[in-house]
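Hello support,

Our group uses your service weekly, and this is the first time we've seen a run hang past the timeout. The protein is DUF3077 domain-containing protein. I'm not sure whether the cause is the sequence or the server load. Input pasted verbatim:
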Amino acid sequence: MKKVVPDPPRNTIKDRAAFNRAIDHYLPTQGVQIEDLSFEDALLYTSSLLDSASATTLNCSELLPSPERAKILAVWHLLEMAKTTVDRSIECLNPAKTPA
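Update from on-call engineer: The timeout came from a worker crash unrelated to the input. Re-ran successfully.
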């Protein structure tokens, strides 16, 4: 079936600006000085980065056909494993007090 009304032309400059705003919002690099981070803060920051990468990977996988989707989901699984390891490291730094 033919469309009666064609899609509007894309404004790539506007799309790029929206993309840059999203990246700046979710991955703020200007405010983070890696040299000034404590070990615990570095782990927390790494956990946040892995969480963002994992969410992005999972979102992208939904748009791909089966063979490519399997590859992206394998990367997502590796990111989740890395995040779990970092989160466990954070827990080891601050062990919860066990009830007596």
